[in-house]
UniProtKB/TrEMBL annotation:
<dbReference type="GO" id="GO:0005524">
    <property type="term" value="F:ATP binding"/>
</dbReference>
<dbReference type="InterPro" id="IPR017871">
    <property type="entry name" value="ABC_transporter-like_CS"/>
</dbReference>
<keyword id="KW-0067">ATP-binding</keyword>
<dbReference type="InterPro" id="IPR003593">
    <property type="entry name" value="AAA+_ATPase"/>
</dbReference>
<protein>
    <submittedName>
        <fullName>Phospholipid/cholesterol/gamma-HCH transport system ATP-binding protein</fullName>
    </submittedName>
</protein>
<dbReference type="GO" id="GO:0016887">
    <property type="term" value="F:ATP hydrolysis activity"/>
</dbReference>
<feature type="domain" description="ABC transporter">
    <location>
        <begin position="7"/>
        <end position="245"/>
    </location>
</feature>
<dbReference type="InterPro" id="IPR003439">
    <property type="entry name" value="ABC_transporter-like_ATP-bd"/>
</dbReference>
<dbReference type="InterPro" id="IPR027417">
    <property type="entry name" value="P-loop_NTPase"/>
</dbReference>
<keyword id="KW-0813">Transport</keyword>
<keyword id="KW-0547">Nucleotide-binding</keyword>
<dbReference type="Pfam" id="PF00005">
    <property type="entry name" value="ABC_tran"/>
</dbReference>
Length: 249
């Protein structure tokens, strides 16, 4: 089961109009692994993420989720596939005018038939999973940046997704909060059995959580390396990959 392909990317080319961002991307994300999309700023990491979660249409190529082509499927089937995904956006993307409980309530009311009592129980459980038990009535402005990220993560797992996507989860966090978030991602992967795809350039996170990875290069406009991050650090001879993985800042 652990080796089954969960997400399969075939000959993917991404473009804005006629401007190609990345081309001929081929990689497989196995069920239950933590897969890292890495590379320097401007290489197209977040653009790739937007393609994987159905927000952008490929210029060419295929995105297969459990063997189904996301963009050859009907709208109804695509919506069903995407509903099995959870996303933690870079800024947390919490509604500032809503409490944490109300933020989590949105997807639960939209996509389930649970009663209000059941929804309240799910919210409390999901917040507890990310270390925010008792914070249901707090507004995002009343908690720290690290807690906001965890609240965003609680919302991302509200519907028990099969696959979780993270866009620069450690952005804006101090080293301690960043490490705590990495530990939480590992715990949730193990407890929920979810597949995790992370976009990041943070080396500490890459080496802590990454089971597998691809490296996007802005000049080559494609992936120039793939494999376990720690193995790439030891074996890659490409100067661009080595420079990225051995930098000190």
């Amino acid at each position: 089961m652990a080796t089954q392909a969960h997400l399969d990317i075939r000959n993917l080319t991404m473009a804005y109009g006629d401007a190609v961002i990345q081309e001929n991307l081929n990689f497989t994300v196995k069920r239950g692994e933590i897969f890292v999309i890495m590379g320097g700023s401007g290489c197209g990491k977040s653009t790739l993420l937007r393609h994987l979660i159905g927000l952008m249409t490929p210029y060419e190529g295929q995105i297969l989720l459990d063997g189904t082509d996301l963009w050859q499927a009907s709208q109804e089937e695509r919506n069903q596939l995407i509903s099995r995904c959870g996303v933690l956006y870079q800024g947390g993307a919490l509604w500032s005018s809503m409490t944490l409980a109300e933020n989590l309530e949105v997807p639960l009311k939209e996509y389930t038939t649970l009663s209000n009592k059941q929804i309240s129980e799910v919210i409390s459980y999901k917040l507890a999973l990310v270390g925010l038990a008792g914070f249901e009535d707090y507004y995002p402005s009343e908690i720290s940046g690290g807690m906001q990220k965890r609240a965003g993560l609680a919302r991302a797992i509200a519907l028990d997704p099969d696959i979780l996507f993270f866009d620069e989860p450690s952005a804006g966090l101090d080293p301690i909060s960043s490490r705590l978030l990495d530990d939480l991602i590992l715990q949730l992967r193990d407890s929920l059995g979810a597949t995790v795809v992370i976009v990041t350039h943070e080396l500490a996170s890459i080496f802590t959580v990454g089971d597998n990875s691809i490296f996007l290069d802005p000049d080559a406009k494609t992936s120039i390396a793939s494999g376990a991050p720690k193995e790439l650090l030891e074996t890659s001879t490409d100067p661009r990959v080595r420079k990225f993985l051995t930098r000190t800042t």
